[in-house]
Specification:
83 residues; mainly alpha; 0% strand
């Protein structure tokens, strides 16, 4: 029986979420299906671009967290804890 692989399978392969056996089958499919190979190459490029994204919180968000932590004890007395 010939297994047909989907774009979802290719994405799992890109993120190394396939078994070794399935990876070999997907690699064979990539070599024989140009459209699947094109999708694979685009997915690799997109993954690389996404890995370059750097996000940082706004300064006022960090300040709000720091202010909150200054005014609230890390371990409140037992009488203030919720059960």
């Amino acid at each position: 029986m010939i297994k047909t692989f989907t774009q979802d399978d290719v994405i799992r392969y890109v993120y190394e979420e396939t078994s070794p056996e399935e990876s070999l089958l997907i690699e064979d499919a990539l070599m024989s299906e140009p459209d699947l190979m094109t999708f694979f190459l685009e997915a690799l490029e997109l993954r690389a671009l996404m890995n370059k994204i750097e996000r940082q919180p706004r300064v006022n968000t960090v300040q709000a967290i720091l202010n909150y932590s200054k005014h609230h004890p890390a371990n409140p007395p037992a009488r203030l804890r919720r059960s």
